[in-house]
């Protein structure tokens, strides 16, 4: 309290000056684009993204492209990173001088080539992210978010086998659609606080096991009819809407579990919140 | 365009140097004249208020950089002419780079070759020659731009090696001058975020961690103040707190004005008291007590006042919320303190909640901080004034009206 007691005389002055000062400051906007063509020697591209704040777009690019990154940012507040070495792309935006400033969001648009296999590590903080990973060759995928709003789509099937999918979501709204298109066998999801939708529609080519851990919030699982579903639920104070599933102890199964061509096994650990299962007709994917 | 007659020649030499890496002999020149283009494997475009820069990398690993900044056009770090901000050349160059952002390798090469620079023939020629991979072409185009470069007989190959070496040395020097940054058109941090101080400080969740730590700090402040208030009430101080709280509610303005005046007069009073005691012989022993005890007394008065205002705030809130039975169950000083302190601390907690969202909502967090600080300042001033008016809660404040019993004693209307 002592610290606050020292503020009274200065506060009104600070309050009067803060807003005009922030407005008067001219932001130094910069735009950087880096593009690289894919070559025959490119066997794998590791993409490490660390993006502090702003709008983020990730999608597939032209056939001959290795990557194209377009970054628009306030140079007074953020520091860009665009480093490429053979096989590794490190890019992002770190906020280094944002304290006390009225910051406007920057933008990062990444297009990735569909020819080269990818190991994607995408970490972003206060971002509004729109990720469409359809049509790429993804071998590993890690997504980590802070207080963000993220929409992940896999609009067309992954052209490689994704060996590892790992999503770590903080206080966020997170929606992932057509996860079956990732062509993965295992998927790990960890959510802190927020509203999460995981949609398992897409082209099913193999069975999928999803390990889900939720802290506080609502989790919606969209599963396609025709896929055998088994959900194991652990946790306290978790509401579970198990429509279309039959309960066997702590496990819920769809009626076609024993005869379905493809199987989706979901193990959920949740602390507090709700889990809802929504059945989706395949033709409406 | 050029400042002196020697500059066209110099520009031509620079163009030759820029194009040097691409000069692989007569055959290459013939290819270039035939219209072959070098394959661009990588490009980097950087546009800002102060500069517009294009970096190219070719299939064989060679690189070239073209830029306009500081009022001049540059090719691989060498000035090749004037290009004032807003000039035709500057605008045309920026338009070209904006188009280049969306172009891929072959389209980009065609775009760069087709570009016609208004008043910037040297830059145009250097760019085109770099893309065409033809030193001969570069010299020809430099000649078109008014230079006499075709007459220059230099050993391009050895000059090229020297230029490359000079560039390496320059880059090394830059690295040594700046340990953290490498000026390559954009500021590129050498070390990764993680290397600079850990995941919590620099990771994507740092705002969440900072916010949570801020909330915990304020929770600690809340706990400490509440513990002091609890102890005060528990050990018989309830009467004093309630007296001050009643005065703060019934004579708020008067308490505020007296508290404000007191906050300005505290230090002068302390100093004057010391002087008065020092100049009187009998006061000297009292001076020993006055110097440390006066600040302690003021601190206690401020703390008592703040707690009393929190009590009054909680009581006022309770009057608005409780029905009859609730009042008997929860209408006590501990509850009033708990809620009142919560109200006073809440803005600072909210600040930290917004902090979790990172810099986006910093402005809203700032508003809550100012609101919280003003509330705290008002609570401290009113509390101090009420303490002075009630002589530390030992007597009712002058002019203090008894606080009316809350309406919650009435029967519920059943609405």
Folded structure, characterized:
The complex is a heterodimer of chains A (285) and B (415). Chain A is mainly beta and 285 residues long. Chain A has one domain: 3 Solenoid (Pectate Lyase C-like). Chain A is 6% helix and 59% strand. Chain A has two helices and 17 strands. Chain A has helices spanning 2-5, 11-24, and strands at residues 29-37, 45-60, 65-74, 78-85, 88-95, 107-112, 118-132, 138-145, 149-153, 164-177, 186-199, 208-224, 228-235, 238-241, 245-248, 251-254, 263-280. Chain A has a 17-stranded mixed beta sheet that branches. In chain A, a hairpin with a 2-residue loop joins β4 and β5. Chain A starts with a helix and ends in a 5-residue tail after the last strand. In chain B, a hairpin with a 2-residue loop joins β4 and β5. With 415 residues, chain B is of the alpha+beta class. Chain B contains 14 helices and seven strands. Chain B has helices at 6-19, 26-33, 88-102, 105-114, 121-132, 135-144, 156-177, 199-202, 206-250, 252-279, 284-321, 324-330, 333-355, 362-389; strands spanning 40-48, 51-58, 63-69, 72-75, 78-82, 181-183, 187-189. Chain B is 64% helix and 9% strand. Chain B folds into two domains: 6-189, no CATH class; 206-409, no CATH class. The chains are: A mainly beta (285), B alpha+beta (415). β1 of chain A pairs antiparallel with β1 of chain B.
Keywords:
heterodimer, A: 285 residues, mainly beta, Pectate Lyase C-like, 17-stranded mixed beta sheet, 2 helices, 17 strands, 59% strand, disordered N terminus, B: 415 residues, alpha+beta, 2 domains, five-stranded antiparallel beta sheet, two-stranded antiparallel ribbon, 14 helices, 64% helix, disordered C terminus
Would you spell out the secondary-structure blueprint of this structure?
The complex is a heterodimer of chains A (285) and B (415).
Chain A: H1 2-5, H2 11-24, E1 29-37, E2 45-60, E3 65-74, E4 78-85, E5 88-95, E6 107-112, E7 118-132, E8 138-145, E9 149-153, E10 164-177, E11 186-199, E12 208-224, E13 228-235, E14 238-241, E15 245-248, E16 251-254, E17 263-280
Parallel strand pairs in A: 2-5, 2-6, 2-7, 7-8, 7-9, 8-10, 9-10, 10-11, 11-12, 12-17, 13-17, 14-17
Antiparallel strand pairs in A: 1-3, 3-6, 4-5, 13-16, 15-16
Chain B: H1 6-19, H2 26-33, E1 40-48, E2 51-58, E3 63-69, E4 72-75, E5 78-82, H3 88-102, H4 105-114, H5 121-132, H6 135-144, H7 156-177, E6 181-183, E7 187-189, H8 199-202, H9 206-250, H10 252-279, H11 284-321, H12 324-330, H13 333-355, H14 362-389
């Amino acid at each position: 309290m002592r610290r606050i007691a020292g503020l009274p005389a200065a506060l009104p002055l600070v309050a009067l000056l803060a807003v005009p000062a922030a407005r008067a400051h001219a932001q130094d906007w910069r735009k950087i684009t880096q593009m690289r063509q894919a070559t025959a020697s490119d066997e794998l591209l590791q993409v490490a993204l660390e993006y502090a704040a702003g709008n983020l777009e990730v999608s597939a690019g032209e056939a001959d492209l290795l990557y194209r990154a377009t970054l628009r940012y306030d140079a007074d507040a953020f520091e860009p990173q665009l480093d490429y070495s053979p096989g590794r792309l490190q890019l992002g935006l770190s906020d280094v001088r944002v304290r006390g400033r009225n910051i406007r969001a920057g933008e990062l648009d990444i297009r990735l080539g569909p020819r080269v296999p990818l190991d994607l590590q995408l970490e972003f903080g206060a971002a509004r992210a729109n990720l469409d990973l359809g049509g790429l060759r993804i071998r590993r995928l890690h997504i980590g978010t802070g207080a963000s709003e993220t929409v992940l789509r896999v609009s067309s099937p992954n052209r490689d086998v994704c060996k590892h999918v790992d999503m770590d979501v903080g206080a966020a709204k997170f929606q992932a659609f057509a996860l079956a298109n990732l062509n993965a066998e295992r998927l790990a999801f960890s959510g802190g606080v927020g509203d999460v939708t995981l949609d398992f529609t897409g082209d099913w080519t193999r069975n999928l096991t999803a390990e889900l851990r939720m802290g506080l919030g609502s989790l919606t699982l969209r599963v396609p009819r025709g896929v055998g579903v088994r959900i194991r639920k652990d946790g306290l104070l978790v509401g579970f809407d198990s429509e279309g599933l039959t309960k066997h102890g702590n496990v819920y199964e769809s009626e076609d579990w024993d005869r379905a061509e493809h199987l989706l096994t979901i193990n959920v650990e949740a602390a507090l919140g709700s889990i809802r299962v929504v059945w989706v007709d395949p033709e409406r994917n | 365009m050029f400042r002196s007659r020697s500059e066209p020649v110099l520009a031509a030499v620079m163009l030759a140097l820029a194009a040097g890496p691409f000069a692989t002999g007569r055959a290459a020149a013939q290819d270039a004249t035939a219209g072959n283009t070098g394959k661009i494997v990588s490009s980097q475009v950087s546009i800002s208020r102060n500069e517009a820069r294009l970096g190219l990398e070719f299939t064989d690993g060679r690189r070239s950089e073209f830029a306009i900044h500081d009022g001049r056009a540059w090719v691989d770090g060498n000035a090749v002419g004037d290009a004032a901000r807003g000039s035709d050349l500057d605008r045309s160059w920026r338009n070209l780079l904006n188009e280049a952002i969306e172009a891929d390798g072959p389209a980009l090469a065609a775009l760069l070759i087709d570009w016609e620079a208004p008043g910037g023939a040297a830059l145009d020629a250097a760019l085109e020659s770099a893309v065409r991979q033809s030193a001969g072409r570069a010299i020809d185009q430099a000649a078109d731009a008014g230079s006499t470069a075709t007459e220059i007989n230099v050993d391009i190959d050895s000059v090229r090696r020297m230029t490359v070496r000079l560039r390496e040395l320059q880059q090394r020097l830059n690295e040594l001058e700046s340990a953290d940054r490498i000026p390559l058109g954009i500021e590129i941090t050498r070390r990764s975020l993680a290397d600079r101080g850990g995941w919590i400080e620099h990771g994507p969740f740092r705002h969440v961690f900072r916010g949570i730590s801020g909330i915990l700090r304020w929770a600690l402040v809340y706990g400490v103040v509440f513990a002091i208030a609890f102890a005060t009430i528990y050990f018989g101080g309830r009467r004093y707190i309630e007296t001050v709280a009643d005065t703060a509610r019934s004579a708020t303005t008067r308490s505020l004005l007296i508290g404000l005046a007191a906050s300005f007069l505290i230090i002068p009073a302390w100093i004057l008291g010391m002087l008065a005691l020092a100049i009187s012989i009998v006061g000297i022993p009292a001076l020993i007590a006055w110097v440390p005890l006066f600040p302690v007394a003021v601190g206690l008065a401020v703390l008592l006042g703040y707690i009393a205002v929190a009590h009054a705030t909680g009581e006022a809130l309770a009057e608005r919320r409780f029905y009859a039975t609730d009042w008997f169950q929860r209408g006590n000083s501990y509850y009033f303190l708990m809620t009142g302190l919560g109200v006073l601390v809440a803005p600072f907690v909210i600040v930290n909640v917004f902090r979790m969202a990172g810099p986006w909502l910093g402005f809203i967090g700032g508003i809550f901080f100012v609101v919280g600080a003003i509330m705290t300042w008002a609570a401290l001033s009113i509390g101090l004034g009420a303490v002075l008016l009630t002589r530390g809660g030992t007597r009712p404040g002058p002019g203090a009206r008894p606080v009316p019993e809350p309406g919650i004693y009435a029967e519920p209307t059943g609405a």
